[in-house]
Amino acid sequence: QVLLVESGGGVVQFGRSLRLSCAASGFTFSNSGMHWVRQAPGKGLEWVAVIWYDGSKKYYVDSVKGRFTISRDNSKNTLNLQMNSLRAEDTAIYYCAREDRTGDFDLWGRGTLVTVSS
Amino acid sequence: DIQMTQSPSSLSASVGDRVTITCRASQSISSYLNWYQQKPGKAPKLLIYASSSLQSGVPSRFSGSGFGTDFTLTISSLQPDDFATYSCQQSYSIPYSFGQGTKVEIK
Question: What is the average pLDDT across A83-97?
Answer without folding.
Answer: 98
